[in-house]
Structure formats: C-alpha cells, structure tokens
Amino acid sequence: MTAFSLNPEQTARCAELRTLAAERLRPLAEKGEPGHVNRPLVTALGEFGLLDGLFEGGGAGAGPPGGASSGALDLCLTRESLAYACTEAETAFALQGLGAHPVHAHGTPEQRERWLPPVRAGHAVAAFALSEPGAGSDAAALSLAAERDGSGGWRLTGEKCWISNAPEADFYSVFARTSPGAGSRGVTAFLVPADRAGLTGTPLDMLSPHPIGALAFDGVRVGEEDVLGEVDRGFRVAMTTLNRFRPSVGAFAVGMARAALDATLAHTAERTAFGGPLKDLQSVGHQVAEMATRTEAARLMVYAAAAAYDGEGPQSPGIARRAAMAKLIATETAQYVVDAAVQLHGARALRRGHLLEHLYREVRAPRIYEGASEVQRTIIAKELYAGVDAPTFAHEEEPPA
Predict the structure, then answer these.
(1) Dihedral, CA atoms, 91, 95, 96, 102, nearest 10 degrees?
(2) Which of 87, 139, 169, 314 is deepest in the core (most CB within 10 A)?
(3) Are residues 102 and 153 in the same domain?
(4) Inter-CA distances, 219 with 156, 157, 194, 202, Å
(5) Which intervals hold domain Acyl-CoA oxidase/dehydrogenase middle (predicted)?
(6) Comparing C-alpha atoms, which of 129, 130, 127, 123 is closest to residue 61?
(7) What is the pLDDT of residue 66?
(8) Chunked in runs of 10, what are the mean pLDDT values of the chain (401 residues)?
(9) Are 242 and 339 contained in the same domain?
(10) 399 in a domain, yes or no?
(11) Do 104 and 181 lie in a common domain?
(12) Residue 43 included in any domain
C-alpha cells in the first residue's frame, strides 16, 4: 500500500467540516427525535452540499455540480470529520450514500433521474435493504422471495431486518432471491419506493437510538423497470456497494476514536490526582500513547484502502481485502480507544449526556453492520489463501511427513 499524507487542501477541508458539524449540524441533531429519521438534518446536509460528495462522477443526476467526481478517499475524510463533531450528522450522511449508491452505480437513466437529485438535495431519504432475520451478514443466503407474476414482473414476499432508515425511508435498494437454490448467483437488486402496496415496516428500539427497522413484503410488485443492474446479478451490486463503503465505516470509527482521544488528552492534562495531573502518571501516559498509536495506524489503513479503490478501481484484485482490513482494524480500534477513554475519565464519563457516554453507545454497532468483524476476517483469509497454490505430491497415497 502506498504511503502518503493529506495535502493542505484536504487538511483544510477536514477542519471546515469539523467546524460545520459542531456549529451548524449538531444543533439540528440535538433537536431530532431519537430512533427516527431527522429530515431537517438530512436537508441541511443537502443544502451545505455535503450529499453531492457521496457519488462518483457519471450518471444522470449523480456527482457534484460540474461533473467533478468524488472518490472513496474524499468520502472517508468527510465521514471521519463529521463523526468527530457530530455522529448523527455522519450517520445521516452515510446512510444516504449507502442506500442510493446501487441506484447511482447500477440504475437506469430513468431511475437515476427520478431519485438521485432529491437524494443529493436531502429531500428524499434512501435505505439499503440487505439484511434478513435468518441471514444476517450472509448475503448469499437471502430468502426474500421474488416470484414471477406472469406479467413480466415479480412479487416480493418475506422480511428484511436491521434496515437503517426503515421504515421512514422514501425508497429502498432491496435484494431478493429470484433463483432459488442458486446462492449468490440467484439474487437480484430492486429499487422499491416506500409507497408500494404490500410494503410495511416497524421501528426497532436499539442500544444507540438510530432510525432502524424491519420491513415486511406481502406480495410487493416490482417490474423490469425496477431492477438495479441485471437479474440474478444483485450480489455484485451489494458487494460493490459494500466495498466502497466499508473503508468509510472505518473512517467513521476513526473519527469517534479521535474525538475520544482528544477528550482524554484534555481531561488527563487538567485532572489532578495523587499530587499532580493524571498525565504525569506513567500508566496514564502509556495508555494514551497506545490509544494514539492505534488510532493513527487505523486511520492510515483506512486512507490506504480508499486510495487503492480510487486508483485501481472497485474490481481490482485486493480491493475487497483492503476494504475488509480497514473496516476491521478501525472499528476494533475505536472500541478499544473509547473504552480506554471512559476508564481514564472515570464515573463522569458514564453520565447521560457526556461525550464518552454517547460514543460508548455509538461505537459498538460498526463492528457488526456492513459485515461483522468475523466476516471481515473471513474475507481477508479467503483472499490471502486464494493466492497460495495447494501443494502437490508425486504419490498422493504417501504425502511427506
């Protein structure tokens, strides 16, 4: 992986985003109702032009004004910067991208023209409907059935669960099984507007109150015009979306880790105990040094994975492995750093409303969604072993000892 550092323009942009999130977006986030989509916050993300940066150049209604493209590294820098100052704004931003990316990358010109401009403006809320109660992170085991209805379309029957922005999204990128028994080769992606007959949803009450819910499909009709990509090729739509966003999940985690680290530096420099500031205790200094080192290592892996995606393309060998590594190390690191920060702050960090109390609840979910840490390790191992030739023996019945 190429070593690099951010240029002055990128560094300045990150500082601007942190200020914007703290001064303009956080007040809107604080007015939101926990567990529900904060539409004023999403609209503000559009008004400030942040949602333009979710999409790479190309496609009707996609990408920033003027046709400039926005890459995976820019996405990571934005998510890290927003997460540092306002996790709610970061999450609202990311969910717009996750839900709409299949439309941007695989949709028809008509689908893009209909949905991407309102997504970028913050007027339409998108959702990525992949997970199911019985499948979890195993995207090839989906059971939501898409059965031909005899009129050139399908009827969707089944359930989705743990869907961010459900049941309040305006449309869903839905993954359903069109060919039973075909594994990953029998999944198709569909664009399903929320007002389709037979589609209902219920909210879920989570540890960290985000808009997450379950969806029920009772014979929801979709047609050829609703297909995203190709029939029975929806697994590719899902994986290319996740490969783009997994490093940026790591960036979200790095943003939280950096916020926890900075809060710890300030606290241990000011708080006195045992005759002096906490920072003068070797055990504290060593703990903070470990937190900072792990955070920086995770940050660089996230940037490297995103830069590889931008430079080599989403289909290049090693992209999935790098994305998995970045998400794995960053989310696990953030969990460690936030937990250590709580320990160094003591009981005050456990009070409702404290920054670290908030981060402690927020930091847990990224180790699960978009592929749990165990799934990331499986992806990494599979790709590593794919490049190792199996040993061959002259006499199969007598392998070497």
Answers:
(1) 150
(2) 169
(3) no
(4) 5, 5, 14, 17
(5) 127-218
(6) 123
(7) 29
(8) 74 96 97 95 97 66 37 94 97 96 96 97 97 79 92 95 96 96 92 98 90 97 97 93 90 98 97 90 96 97 92 84 95 98 96 96 93 93 83 45 39
(9) yes
(10) no
(11) no
(12) yes
Residue 380 class from Cβ within 10 Å (0-12 exposed, 13-18 middle, 19+ buried)? middle
Three-class SS state of 36: coil
pTM beyond 0.85: yes
Same domain, 203 and 239: no
What is the CATH number for 31? 1.10.540.10
Q: Which pair of tokens denotes residue 379?
A: 């992806």
pLDDT for the residue numbered 137: 62
Adjacent-strand bridge partners of 301: none
Which are the catalytic amino acids? 370
Report which residue type is found at 267. H
Q: Around Cβ 338, how many Cβ atoms within 10 Å?
A: 29
Ranges assigned E (strand) in 198-241: 199-203, 212-222, 227-228
Antiparallel, parallel or unpaired: β 227-228 and 272-273: unpaired
Q: Which of 193, 190, 57, 176 is nearest to 118 (CA)?
A: 193
CATH number of the domain within which 274 lies: 1.20.140.10
Same structural domain, 115 and 143: no
Q: What is the pLDDT of residue 316?
A: 83
